[in-house]
Amino acid sequence: MMFSGWFDLPWWGLIVVALALTHVTIAAVTIFLHRCQAHRALELHPLVSHFFRFWLWLTTGMVTKEWAAIHRKHHAKCETVDDPHSPQVYGINRVLWLGVFLYVKESFNKETMERYGHGTPDDWVEHNVYSRHAIHGLFLMGAVNIALFGIVPGMLILVTQIVWIPFWAAGVINGVGHWFGYRNFEDVPDASRNIVPWGILIGGEELHNNHHAYASSAKLSSQWYEFDIGWLYIRLMEMVGLATVKKVAPKPKFAQPRAVDLDTLHAVIANRYDVLSRYAKSLKQTYAHELERLRRWSPRDAEVLKSLRRALLRGQPKEHHPKVAEVLDKSRALHTALTMRQELVALWERSSASKEQLLRQLQDWCRRAEASGVAPLVAFSERLRSYANA
Hints:
Layout (H helix, E strand, L loop, with lengths): L10 H28 L3 E3 L1 H14 L4 H13 L10 H4 L1 H16 L2 H7 L7 H7 L5 H14 L1 H25 L22 E2 L8 H6 L13 E2 H11 L3 E3 L7 E2 L7 H9 L1 H26 L1 H9 L1 H5 L8 H8 L2 H16 L7 H16 L4 H10 L2 E2 L2
Helix pairs in contact: 1-2, 1-3, 1-9, 2-8, 3-6, 5-9, 8-9, 13-14, 13-17, 13-19, 17-18, 18-19
């Protein structure tokens, strides 16, 4: 007679158990490996931290240093040939279905480990158990599953646990999260996407564009309709003293519009993605006004402008789309709005400029914007002057 385990559960009960166990693993990945270890967005109580390390050893065999190093390199080299798992480089099918092999390949890169693996656990148990005997945790997990649920159900649950992270994290997040979905922050310089606004199944990692905008934030949701279950767990742990949040994405603060000063400059730079998101809305308004104007005076030019909507709103360079230059020659408002967007972006890219130089540039930018006569640009500049430090 085949051993049936200590718990004789119906088929749906086994599914619930498998989902519960894999959800703990997802929580360990997003809270411990990702937000705590890779990005230092929070600190965990030693008991919680070690529980997560132990659980990941049991269910995945992943080494903390390897995971953190590979993820940090992904951010540093995102969408380039040095990115360990970009679907823009390797293709969506390879990353989605075979992403775990890209991870394993990069884990043998000693330069990646040395450059990006700093600050991860370096104690006796890490060296002598979790790293040295990474695969043995899975054998122990399999034995526990068989003892609890029987041979066949126990092995099926183990297989589910083994493939869960490679598929959802290495495949879906690294693949779909850089291929398909919506973007709250269009100006993030990579292809990251929010897959869905409800981060439950993968612990909040679904909100991937938000994460790339503010990589060091412990909270991944940014809009009122977005839900990050990993953040819920962190807040619950913080309430009982088991976690300390160090960083979250800045929430814009506003005051009455005022003359541009150093406080304005600091607030604009700190909230640069919010600034650019609002500028994108202003640019859309300018585009709509110009499209309507051309429809009245030059229907042919209006059709050309309509066909170039995506290129214009995404700031595609003229040399990449010859017709863009033709349209901008006939629309002073759009030309001004696009040129001033590039100048605004350049403000926080000038790392060698002093605060005084940046302040003068921002003051001049606002002065020219409000003298442009482009109504959405004037309104945006007044809004820009109302940003305040938290």
